What does this fold into?
Amino acid sequence: MRKATSKLLTASFLASVLGACGSSTPPPPPGPPPVGSVTLNVQQGMPTPLQMLDIGVQVFATEADPEEITLPGAAIFAEIRNTETHYLPVALRHTLLSSNQWGIVRVLPATDPSLDLLITGTILESTGADLLLQVRAVDSTGRLWLDKRYADIARTADYPDSIPSLRGGGITDGPDPFQDLHAAIANDLLAFRNSLTTSDLARIQEVTQLRYAADLSPEAFAPYLETDAAGQLTLSRLPASNDPLLQHVADIQARHNVFIDTIDEYYEALYQDVKPRYDVWRQYSFEQVLDQRDNAERARNGEAVLGTGSFEALSQNYNRYKWSKIFEQEFVALSSGFVSETAPAVLELSRNVSGLTGPVEDLYAQWRVYLRGLYDIETQSAATAPAP
Amino acid sequence: MTQSFLILTPVTLRFAALSALLGLFALSTALHAADEPVLRDPAVSGSDLPLRPLFAGSWQKDFARSDKWEEEVQRIIDQLNREMQRQQGRGDAGAVGMSGSRRSVGNLVAHARLAELITRQTTMRITQSGDEVRIERQGDAALVCSTLSDIENTFSSAHGSELCGWDRLQLVFQILLAEGVLIEHRFSVDPSGEELSMLTSVSSRGSTPFNLMTFYTRYEAPEDGINCVQTLSRGLVCSALDGAPQTGAPAAEPAP
It folds into this structure.
C-alpha cells in the first residue's frame, strides 16, 4: 500500500515539476504586433462643437488566464487584475483628454445612453512587460468605430533605472510604460472621427439626445428614432424645439451628469491612490518576466554553463537559484502588499457614491431607475398642474 | 498570463531526474513510516493532522558541536587514502586510479565549500503555524514547507527546483540546481525542543554526498514580540504583539 502511494507521489511530482518547468518559460504573448512608439495627436486650438463628442470609457473586463490559478499567490494576482479593470480605463481617459480632441470623457461602470461614444475594453494580457487589450468603440447611432486588439511591450527605458526597494518602500511616479498603447487608441479614434462628415457628427449628437430621452420615457421619445438598413439608429423626425418634455429630459440629464461626474471622480481618485503602488508592482513584474524569458532563451539554446564542478561554478549556480527564489518570494510579498494597500481605495469607491450601498455597477443601475421615476413624477406633475 | 508547455531540454530532463530522486525520497519516507506508529499531535487530538515537531523559535549556531568542513574533508581524504593503500596492498591499484581519485577529491572539496557557504548563517528564525513551517535565514531565501502534506514541490525556476517533505519527524528540503547538483537540508529537533540540528548534504550526479552537520540552540532574540509586515509605501512596518507569539525574533528594524 505504501509502495503504491509512493509511486503515485512520484508520478504526481513528475507532473508537477515538469509542469512548473513549463510554466517558467512563457511564450511571447499572442496577438497583434506591438504599437511601437506612438505620438499622441494633440489638437492645438479648440475643437469645433461638432467634434467635441462626449465619451464614456466603461470599466474594462478581464480574461484571466486559467494557468494562473496554479501559480503561487494566484488569488493576489486576480485582485490586481480586478484593480487594473478600473485603472486602465482612467489611463486611457487621461490620454483622450490630453489630446484635446474631444468633449467630456468619463469612466463609467456600465453603458450609458447619454454619451456620444462608448469605449469598452477587455484586458487579454497584462504584465509589467506586455499589455494586450481588445478595444471596441461604438457611437450612439450604433456605428462601430473600432474593434481591435492593441499590444504594447514595455522597454527597460520605460522604467526607472533602479528597482524600487521593498525595504525602502520605494515608490515611483513615472510615466506610464504603456502610454504608446493608449496613444494608439486615441489616434485611431481621432482618425475615424476625421473620416466622418459634419452631418454624421451632428446626427450622432442628435441621436444621443433622443436616445437618452427615450431611455427615460420610451413611449414619448422612442418614435423619434428608427433603425436604418445598416442597423444604425437614425432620426425619423425631430421634436419641437420648445417641447416641454424635452426640457424635463434636459433637467434630468443635468442631474444625471452630476451623478456620473461623481462616479468618474471616484475612479480618478482610485487611480491616483493606486498608481504609485501599481507602478512598483508593474516594475517587479517587468523584471520577473524578463528574467523568465531570459532563462527560457538560455534553455532553448542549450547554453553551456560556466565551469563544471569547481566551487566557483557551484556557488555561482547556487546564487542564481537563490536569487531567483528570493525574487519570487519578494514578488509575491509585493503583490500581497499591493492588494492590501489598494483595497481601502477600492472599498472607498464602492462606499462613497451617493451614499448608497452596493457595488458601483448596482448603484448606477439604481440611479437610472431613480431618474426615470423622477422624470415620471415631474412630467405628471406638470401635466396635472393648473394652468396659470 | 503564462501558458504551460513542455520543452524537452537538458533542464527539463534534469527536472525529471529530480522527480526520480524525489520518488526515492517518497519511497524512503513511506518505508520509514511503516516502521513507526502514526503519531498525532495531542493538541489536535482526534483530527487527521499528522504530528509535526515544533521548530518555531530563534536558533543560534552551536559552533562547538557543529562540523567544520575542513575537518570533514580531511577525514574523508584520510579514509580514501586508507582505502587506496588497502587496494594497492591487494594489488588492484587500477580499481580507482590516481586521476580518478584526484577528481573525486576536487569534487569533494567543491561540495564541502558549497555546503559551508550555504550553512554560514549564525542564526535562524523559524515560524510555524498549523499549516506551514517557515525558516528564515539571513542572506538566503526562506525555506517554506507545508505541515499538512508529506511532500510538495515548493519552487521551480530555470536555475533549480525545490521540494520539501517530512521523513518521520524530520523536515527535509531537496534542492536540485539546474546543473545537477543536489542539496539536501534535513532538520530535526531533540525531544526537549531546545536543540535543533540541520544535516546538509551536497552531491552531484550520484556522487557520494558530502555531509555537514550544524547544531543550533534555542535563544531568546531581543526583538521577540514584534510583528513586522512588509508594505509597499512604508517598507517594513513593525508593531508589538499582544499575545505571546509562536515565533522567534524578527530580523527587522522597528517601526519608525
